From TrEMBL, chain A:
Its cofactor is FAD. The gene is glcE. It is an enzyme of class 1 (oxidoreductase). Gene3D superfamilies: 3.30.465.10. It comes from the Bacteria. It comes from Chelativorans intermedius. This is Glycolate oxidase subunit GlcE.
Automatic annotation (TrEMBL), chain B:
It comes from Chelativorans intermedius. Keywords: FAD, Flavoprotein, Oxidoreductase. InterPro entries: FAD-bd_oxidored_4_C, FAD-bd_PCMH, FAD-bd_PCMH-like_sf, FAD-bd_PCMH_sub2, FAD-linked_Oxase-like_C, FAD-linked_OxidoTrans_Type4, Oxid_FAD_bind_N, Vanillyl_alc_oxidase_C-sub2. This is FAD-linked oxidase C-terminal domain-containing protein. The keyword Nuclease does not apply. Pfam families: FAD-oxidase_C, FAD_binding_4. Its cofactor is FAD. PANTHER family: GLYCOLATE OXIDASE SUBUNIT GLCD. Residues 51-229 form the FAD-binding PCMH-type domain. PROSITE patterns: FAD_PCMH.
Amino acid sequence: MTTFIPGTSAEVHEIVRWAAAEETPLEVIGHGTKQGIGRPVQAEHTLDLSRLAGVTLYEPEELVLAARAGTPLAEVEALLARHGQRLAFEPMDYGPLLGGKAGRGTLGGVLGANLSGPRRIAAGAARDHILGIDAVSGRGEAFKSGGRVVKNVTGYDLSKGLAGSWGTLAVVTDLVFKVLPAAETERTLAIAGLDDAQAAAAMAEAMGSDGEVSGAAHLPEGVIGRFLDGGFSGGPRTVLRVEGFGPSVAYRVERLGRRMKAHGAVEVLEEAQSRRLWREIRDCRPFADGTDAPVWRVSMAPMAGHRMLDAFRRAAGANAYYDWQGGLLWLRMEAEPKAETLRTLIARCGGGHATLVRATPALRAAVSVFQPQPPALVALSARLKAQFDPRNILNPGRMAVA
Amino acid sequence: MSTPRMPELNAATLERREEIVADMRIIVPGEGVVESEAEMRAFESDGLTAYRQLPMVVVLPETVAQVSRILKYCHERNIRVVPRGSGTSLSGGALPLGDAVLLVMSRFNRILEIDFANRAVVAQPGVTNLGITRAVEHEGFYYAPDPSSQIACSIGGNVAENSGGVHCLKYGLTANNILGVEMVLMTGEVIRLGGKHLDAEGYDLLGLMTGSEGLLGVVTEVTVRILRKPETARAMLIGFPSSEQAGQCVAEIIAAGIVPAGMEMMDRPAIHAAEDFVHAGYPLDVEALLIVELDGPQAEVDHLIERVGEIARRNGATTSRVSNSEEERAAFWAGRKAAFPAVGRISPDYYCMDGTIPRKELPRVLAGMRTLSEKYGLRVANVFHAGDGNLHPLILYDANKPGELEKAEAFGADILRLCVRVGGVLTGEHGVGVEKRDLMPEMFTEEDLNQQMRVKCAFDPNHLLNPGKMFPQLHRCAELGRMHIHRGQMPFPDLERF
Ligand SMILES: Cc1cc2nc3c(=O)[nH]c(=O)nc-3n(C[C@H](O)[C@H](O)[C@H](O)COP(=O)(O)OP(=O)(O)OC[C@H]3O[C@@H](n4cnc5c(N)ncnc54)[C@H](O)[C@@H]3O)c2cc1C
């Protein structure tokens, strides 16, 4: 059992080449904040990228930032903030949910897990902002893809191909992300008293309006007390975020507020409260309860989410809330995960996928953490894996379906 | 005429041509098979008309089952297939091969579902880009990526090329605006990636598929995200005495946290050609003209117009106008939108390039282009997606003069090399195709290209789909799969921590 902690990409290259030759598996980690997601990896050695760190290029007026894979996300976000910019895809922090500390995690992990946040519905995920990568494949060969310009269609987009691959195709050593201006300010409209179906309708109307809403979530009765230290009193809230330049935000909040009154009583959260609320929604704070009770992250068509949940609740006890206009469901199970039931219902309600983002290692070895795929897709994915990592040395088994 | 080197014709396929055509007629009955030379002429090239080649046969299927059967048939008999949408590619992506079935998707022209609540449209791949917007605009929605070819190009072709448009700085490329596809693999297997939900699970095959130029599979259905039309849009027309000042103005707009809906630049030759053609009212005494469009809520647009105006003044703008009506906004754009045909009027032929550069390198690249223009004795006009650094130099030449096309091509290749040298790339939106295929080694090492080809091997190991495009050389997948093993000591024992 060896842990390699390389400081250069040449060292990473050498380690992976050696592991490929020896056919000895490596568990690839950054800060290890998301090690609890996926099937437990059985690897002889660990490749720890946390020392392969540092921002290598940042040109705010070109909207690009390049950094080594082990660069702390927090460092990148602080640097961007000093220049009035941000990663527009709002990468979530799994730390608290998985029983770790907040504010850790590396840039490599952001791509490997294809992180995003509430702004996913308006600005995309990590996959939409990655411009280029340098990586070492499981074959032990170094390659690059993409570049440092924001518009590029030269060759296959391998950078996107590595998004959400959980370190099973290649070890990324360097990344280039597109960055964007941070919003000058933000407010949140909170509509009181809607049930899940009414909330879905209200959110659809808001997202279909010209109010440029950058976050739409519904926080039902069962979770509402866990946001803003219990600052919301009495009943569910459907929340809509409006971001941008001051005059624009004031104007849109006013117009959207008038429109949303038809659905229920509307209150407006000022900037500080709004920022805090969306961080809590992003990081699944209501279920960051220090337990390892199963938590599902489900992605569906926005209008299908509440229908699925309604049916699921008849079969199992679950606490839940919605982001992404109702299309992202966070579910905390009272007892066992009920994977089969959940996935059958998702399929019946128009499709989507469910990831078991929190569970004990024993459960993760027994239940498919990631959504099982139809046979033709399983075969294609296996062929792709073999083209990058023919000897299965990178995070073996992590994405495997039980 | 310059003819690119294409894969050697498969004699065995050509020998069986009649049998193949007959079988295609069984799979696609009716009018769906075209085999006479006269009728196939319409398909001999795409938007890159310098390259022409008749296919072996043209097939226009109407159903997914037909596409699946055609591909399975061709797979089993080792017959090559070239997918084609509307044939507007500017890189020769849809250039036929003499021994291949040209699979034309234009009869897949129906919108299957409009879902306003989920802000999604499900369309067949032959629906035009603009056709999607047309189908939803009565409710105030639109599909954001807007290539200049949008009245003609197909959404399937957009997926294959990951097309962009003037609005992609703010709204993204095709890849950022599609939710899912249904596609057929070369084996005939039908698969679905994504849907109306976000972020398909497993590997991001949708991301790999977008921009794959018809080499990985045939798209038979696309689900796109539609957006609400912004409340308002206004454009500014700003003239500068030098391209450096215009470039600096662009940089400062972005640095001020403003992301305009569109930000286009034209150089003097392009301004003059456009103005002569459409009389848009462009200033003729400037070296560079910027069109900056701001869209969104009324209050925001008014606020930002002020700020952009200040930044322009600070950077030495000599003229500045703001559109005060939809007609005026359209007039500002008219010259830019007609830039290609306008250039077509001042030269018998033109050749459109598509490199992207880090924006700050613009002065250096423009100077380099002037030197190259003198060297080759050919004029060049520049239109430029200034916000994202995507250059469209238009090289003017006369194909009737012997040697000029070759000169124009060499000039174009030198421009792209220059783009790569300053940290840019070969193509921002038009794709590699046949045109830039042989320049790929300027940007990628052999190992980079091999790993890309291995992706191809996962989808189409026999290289039957659109071979001869994108890769300068196609290696056999068996060869690419071989591993060269160097056994040795465990590296860096000093790094051991446990
Ligand atoms: C005047 C003009 C202006 C243009 N402006 C722009 C612009 O602003 N931005 C931009 O990005 N591009 C632009 N283009 C380029 C071109 O329009 C785009 O690349 C477009 O997406 C091509 O679509 P198409 O349907 O014509 O595809 P085709 O030209 O038919 O094919 C293009 C490629 O896609 C593949 N393909 C087509 N359909 C499918 C399918 N169903 N499944 C799998 N593969 C398929 C083909 O094999 C080929 O490799 C312009 C072209 C012209 C002529």
